[in-house]
Amino acid sequence: MPGPPTVADEQSERAAERTDPTLIRIRDLVYKVCGIYMPDNKFYFLNDRCDRRVKTLKMDSLRAYYDALTLGADREAEIRNLLNEITVGETCFFRSPQQLSALRKIILPKIMEAKKKLSFTRLKIWSAGSSTGEEPYTLAMMLLEDSATMLKDWKWEINATDLNDHSLAKCKEGVYPGYAVRNTEPYYLQKYFRPDGQNFALVPEVKSRVTFTRLNLHDESKMLFMKGYDVIFCANVLIYFDGTSKRRTVHHFYNGLMPGGYFFVGASESLYGVSEEFRLVHFPGATAYYHPLLREEVADERPR
Predict the structure, then answer these.
(1) Exposure of 175 by Cβ count < 10 A (0-12 exposed, 13-18 middle, 19+ buried)?
(2) Which of 18, 136, 199, 241: disulfide with 245, CB 3.0–4.6 Å?
């Protein structure tokens, strides 16, 4: 039974009462298209982003903009423009060193040992919600470092996806400000970057190892084709989804992983209450979610 209303609840209700009904319709449209849910306390952000588009299109009202999103001849393109405005992420290279260490020292050797027994010598990694590309490029630099040792005679690919066209353009450009490389060791800066004015440009060897594609994680038909991955990263993306969208998307990630594969979320994120398919695995300073092998699933189901 719900408890008595709190001050926060009352403030949220008052904010909702003051909100333009058209903005609520736009919020619902965004949710329907991509699964991103904006609670009432984020309406100010959505209103600001819509206002930018209203001014760009020289419209006179939010209602006219809603009509453009739903009835206009270019409605699909305009929805995409709005999503570009509201899906802006901030990240950096080598953002989660404990996760990277677990991947390099524990997870990849384990996966490679199992695959080699089956005469498979190919690794497939997916960076979902890759923002401006720092995460997948970090992974590429790490794997390049091991290409002459642990990964000798192995083929590997890194696929990175994001919803935001502007972010993807930045990925493909591969030029970053100093703030983006704040966690990058001098060794990597010297080997894999070149000065570009005040910025840092990735060398072609790194850029060529990552494939970038626009993908809506809420698009069931596209997600069904994201298969056969050994490792998936999806950091600080699911926090923008409600429970229903999270469960659906995480289930797709589970199906996209090979049995024996691993799924990483953001350091402060958890799949508790979202998925019971994965196994939580602890590493030094980090956690990941494991897709059990069939024989492990069968063993778990045996009566004890």
Answers:
(1) middle
(2) 241
- Topology of the domain covering 7-86: Chemotaxis Receptor Methyltransferase Cher; domain 1 (1.10.155)
Q: What is the pTM of this model?
A: 0.89
Same fold for the pair 7-86 and 97-301: no
Going by C-beta distance under 8 Å and a sequence separation of 6 or more, which residues neighbour residue 35? 217, 218, 241, 242, 245, 248, 249
Residues β-bridged to residue 21: none
State the amino acid at position 191 in one-letter form.
K
What whole-number percentage of the chain has pLDDT above 70? 91
Strand, helix or coil at 256? Answer: helix
Q: What is the DSSP letter of 60?
A: S
Return the domain boundaries, the chain. 7-86, 97-301
First to last CA, the chain: 36
Burial per residue of 58-74, b for 16 or more beta-carbon CB atoms within 10 angstroms, e otherwise: eeeebeebbebbeebee
Task: Please state which CATH class domain 97-301 belongs to.
Answer: alpha beta
Long-range contacts of 65-69 (CB under 8 A, 24+ apart): 65/26, 66/22, 66/25, 66/26, 66/29, 69/26, 69/29
pLDDT tens-digit map of 210-246: 999 999 999 999 999 999 999 999 999 999 999 999 9
User: Cα–Cα distance between 233 and 108 in angstroms, integer?
Assistant: 14
Question: For the segment 285-303, what is each residue's pLDDT rounded down to a tens digit?
Answer: 999 999 999 767 645 555 5
Q: Is 131 exposed, middle or buried (0-12, 13-18, 19+ CB in 10 A)?
A: buried
